[in-house]
Write a structure and sequence with these properties.
Length: 304
């Protein structure tokens, strides 16, 4: 893949706001390599051990569907490769059956089905399915788009972490609001009862003084409970702050990995160009020197 194209995809993936936009960008990149290649994304629900949502890029827009497909339907070896999340698992001659199961098309033109796991914090969070046309010569589509898929995996993890961070903040806000509302209602109720008891005491003498004392004591208990609740809330806020800090560090690391993949793609492209020139009849020694110069310049750029 040309460095400019890989760099452009990296730029697009770093700016998208959701997984659907990232998937559309990847689908466009795959179509540029082979218009018969198709990609589908499945969201994995770890709590139920199911593929719970299917996203299919289309000309009219993203087609989404809620599904319930058990991951156990896949072969054991494929499940292990998905959990590793490093490369595609090739379903080979069984591709047609699994294309039907997953709902990604089962016509003769669909070719071979490959699956790759997408990890977030080391845990499976999604599955990327690639329908690869059959080829008799040349590189396979999965090999051509491997750098693009790596960039998509990084973007998927970044977007998942951002969703988790937003959900944590939203949950904290809801918890804070609920605790404040509960505390306000309790104090208001106790104050109302105290006012009624004081009014009754003023009208009937001292016979209700015990009741007033009990109510005052109840207010003190409620205030103490409110302080404890506030301390717990503060602890939750601190935990969320630490989690957000970790997520931000992880995002920086993912960005650095993306830049490294982009640089590696550039080097691979330059080496391939040099080898192609060698095949056209250029001096082999000159080509070898050029390849060594490319690799040496990469090592010098990587050294501190």
């Amino acid at each position: 893949m040309a460095p400019r194209t890989l760099a452009g995809l990296s730029t697009v993936l770093s700016s998208v706001g959701n997984v659907a936009e990232a998937l559309s960008a990847l689908a466009q990149d795959i179509a540029e390599h082979d218009r018969n290649g198709h990609v589908v994304l499945f969201i994995y629900d770890a709590r139920r051990d199911l593929l719970s949502e299917r996203l299919i890029p289309a000309h009219e827009g993203m087609r989404t569907a809620q599904i319930e497909i058990a991951i156990d339907h896949l072969p054991t070896a494929v499940r292990r490769m998905l959990a590793a999340g490093r490369q595609f698992a090739d379903l080979g001659s069984e591709s047609g059956d699994y294309q039907k199961l997953l709902g990604v098309g089962a016509n003769p033109e669909a070719g071979v089905l490959l699956l790759r796991g997408l990890l977030v914090d080391g845990e499976l969070a999604g599955v990327l399915a690639l329908s690869e046309p059959k080829t008799r010569f040349g590189h396979r589509l999965s090999e051509k788009v491997a750098p693009a898929v790596d960039l998509f995996a990084l973007a998927f993890a970044r977007l998942a972490e951002r969703r988790a961070r937003e959900e944590a903040v939203r949950t904290l806000e809801e918890l804070t609001r609920s605790l404040n509302d509960e505390h306000t209602r309790a104090v208001a109720e106790l104050q109302h009862k105290l006012s009624e008891a004081q009014a009754a005491l003023n009208g009937k003498g001292t016979s209700d003084s015990i009741r007033v004392t009990q109510l005052k004591r109840a207010i003190e208990v409620a205030a103490a409970e409110a302080r404890v609740t506030a301390q717990r809330l503060s602890a939750v806020e601190e935990q969320v702050r630490v989690a957000v800090t970790k997520l931000e560090k992880a995002h920086v690391q993912l960005h650095a990995q993306g830049e490294a993949l982009q640089t590696q793609g550039s080097i691979i492209y330059r080496v391939e160009q040099a080898l192609r020139e060698a095949m056209t009849g250029q001096d082999s020694r000159k080509v070898i020197e050029e390849v060594l110069q490319i690799v040496t310049s990469r090592e010098q750029a990587s050294s501190p």
